[in-house]
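Table S4 entry, DUF3135 domain-containing protein.
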Amino acid sequence: MQTLPSFDELKAMAENAPEELEALRLSMSEEIINNASEAMQPRLRAQMSHINQVIATGKNPNHTNILLMSELQQQLKRFALALNAPETLKAHCAEIKPFTRPNPPGDSSASSKP
């Protein structure tokens, strides 16, 4: 397993070699996912994909950190809810409605279909 460099080394990488820092982030994340149980790997890959999408929307490093902090806070709220009131997680139920296509203007044949 890779060892995370010191804070000073990470800071220097962020300032001088951001591509190298990003490669380190991705390789360490992949290593962690690969070492997880087979059952958890799909969920971790989905979470990693979501994190990558959040990072991609950041306009600068500070904005990216704010976006990631917001995501983390949302996850912590869901975790607290799961611990303190697990019954509320199953309380939401979607109503499924059939999709019907609108009739094109002047098309009277479509109105006769069920």
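Residues 1-35 form one domain.
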